[in-house]
Amino acid sequence: MAELLLELFSEEIPARMQIDATHQIKELFSKKFAEHSIKYNNIESFATPRRLSLFVEGLEELLPDILVEKRGPRKEAPQQAIDGFLRSVNMTLDQLEIRLIGKDEFYFANYTEKGSHTADILLKLIPEILHNFSWPKSMKWGNYDIKWVRPLRNILCIFANKTLPIKFGHLIANNKSYGHRFLAPQEFEVKSFAEYKEKLKKQYVILNHYERRSLILQQITDLASKNNLSIGKDDGLVDEVCGLVEWPVALMGQFDQSFLSVPKEALTTAMRSHQKYFYLTKTDGSLSNHFITIANITTSDNGAIIIRGNEKVLRARLSDANFFFNIDKQKTSNTRIEELKNVTFHAKLGSIYDKVIRIKELSSCLNNFIKADNNLVEQASLLCKSDLTSTMVGEFPELQGIMGGYYTDIEGYKKEVVEAVRDLYKPMGAEDTSPTNPVSIIIAIADKIDSLSGLFSANEKPTGSKDPFALRRAALGVIKIILDNKLRFDLNIILNKSLELYKIPHEKINIIRLELQEFFTERLKFLLKNQSIRHDIISAVFDTKLYDLYDLLNKANAIQKFIESSNGSKLLIAYKRASNIVINEEKKHNTNYNISPNINLLQAKEEKELFNALEIAKKSIKNALANNDIDNCLQGLEPLREPIDNFFNKVMVNVEEEELRKNRLSLLAAIRGLLETIANFQLVETNV
Amino acid sequence: MTNPFTFQNIIMTLQQFWIDQKCCILQPYDMQMGAGTFHPATTLRALGKKPWNCAYVQPSRRPTDSRYGENPNRLQHYYQFQVILKPSPENVQALALESLKAIGIDYNKHDMRFVEDDWESPTLGAWGLGWELWCDGMEVLQFTYMQQIGGIECFPVAAELTYGLERLSMYIQEVDHFKDVSWNGEVTYGDVFLEAEKEFSSYNLEYANISNLLRYFEEAEAECNKLLDKNLPLPAYEECIKASHIFNLLNSRGVISVTERAAYITKVRAMAKGCCSKWVELAEGVNG
Question: pTM value?
């Protein structure tokens, strides 16, 4: 049993690409091994910023012999053909087997093909893998033809404890590797994986990224708790930092307490996003003036110089933030609203100021349903974009809304207004929380809908790959706010009003609104993906004139439960059967059977029972619909199942007598019609 | 005791380091431009097959960074030190680290990290892959393997190293405001440039003549195309550089909307592409 060790030693691989690379290289090798029937016990891959490595154990050096059976010509074939076959298998006539296939006898050559040397196969297969390896971005360097994520400087390849000299471009593999770039860069040689791991560790490289990651987490938590501070969960940052170091060393620094007067979000953004630091909180939950950075080196002064350097950089960034914050506080939000006249929203849609006015109108319309304080709603809508011309938002665009909250708070606006301005852009994705205060809800929905209607009407619908205006997130946000707050109103009214505010001609409003509805429905399906509500049921329920999202979702839930029940699923099948027959006949005769069944034409007992059951069901469902009671609607359907089944069992629909046939079809059409007053069951699938 | 690494010493040390690596030390290009990359020694020389190793200081103009000299870290005029190594050498990363050691940033004492940063210039139709080299959390060097310039693939590939001299010197001299950087042990950076920062910030943000600038841009564009027709890519490229700087000024004056920006960038890119293609066509032809 032999080992294979491969290391691709390069210049620093982007942190975000390392984990995927380990998955890809494992998959590529597994696939190739399967193709060549190469068995192995275990395959592992590793990544550090400077190396991508693969280790396979339990390989055979020699592949098993293969028994080959080759069919030749018929026994009666001309001598030339037989001789040719004998030459091709390098055998004599007496070595061949004769077999009867059907009515003829054929010559067969049975021989053993010696198993290949795994090493030979690897020599071919590994370069293929490397040439086909796919990085999100790759490059050329120097004079060389090969491409890699960053310049590849050495390849180590060992099989069965011997160097396997695979070729990739100008590189030929050897048995060498290198330690940590600064702490122990010397070259070393290895013969096995165990030796490789050991020498790397001695030379300050932690090969296994999971091990490195745990070490980082350990160091951070220890350092924090030693100082009575805590770190928030931040997997993203830990992963990123793990991809930047081969030998992590957590160091703690601090910044001047006076900077704590700068908005907390500006501080944390500067620390986390710009500097890749972990920020810390005190026991009372407030932000500490300490931070932790992960260095890639141990130094004789225990990181003192490094900490000082980091503190200096942070001080510069925070001074900037402080500077901008103070400049912004010298202007009022009202002044900034005027400045919005000079900021374009979209070339075809005017300025942000124009948008603010539309938001005000739309919010007022929404308030008919939400019933918050009108004055506060108007104030919030006028102020909601005022932070966009602040220098803080200019420097930290991710702080839009949040800075607005700070400025309006400082200026003394009411709490509802401050919160609404702060939370304008929420929810920022499916995982974020929705605003819950009425004023916040209104302007958050109004802003998003204004963007959606405007940009859809300006032909800026998102495509499969591009969504530069984040319209998917906007639609998802509207849906989430509605569902999380159980809001009840017809979204169509708001969409129409929004399109009117853009002065879109009436004929076009309907078209655009339908496009928007389709877009919302798609986003809803996306949002509900994890709640196992079937797509087809959502489509069936959403195919109505009323667009009260919360209500429609309730309906979808109820119908799904109904369909999953024994009675319900049988009824659905019966409905489908009835509906299909009717549709077929309607197509054949180019007519429509939505006529009231004639009671005088009913003959069979089962026909009459179905007719009666339908009459009763119609009444109870009509009542339930008027009360918007989906549960009673579905209950009203239950008593139909037996009569429908009996009808199908005993009554023939397509009889010769035209009037009788038409009447029976009208009964079936009545079943179809009744179910479709509840939802478009046509779209619900039966064999899911 | 004065830090031996005065501003001018830093420049001289870096120049000497790269002289020792067989680079030719060029002088700055005598035009206003946004970055050392715009110097034909980078944009044009990184194209084509001939090897090329050079280093130079380039004054860089960023009108939108105008802060009247009040922001300790932001200037509308600063110096980049630019190095081009074509083809990129095997030990280019080690050279970058050694060059920093030469000016007092010892990689054994600091936390040096190569952090992914891919450079792209829409106006030059150029892009490359590489890193920001961080020292204790601060970017000190932009390191790029040029893959494409003016829409043309670069081969052999040049490595471009760009140092921000003011930022580096503030770090090395341990001062917090650019004006306190010691230029030669007696004169400070502020003595040399503070007044200029004030006046040029006013010019860039408030007084640059917009109608003149709009006209200059059109004239530069037209002239560029005329010169390309005459097979003069080098003077044509100067018009492209001019246009790019004018665009930056129009931007700092606040007259370019989001949609217009895209249109301007497209125009400058077209000029850059034209100049690069013509240069390669003539260079390859002349040199076989």
Answer: 0.83
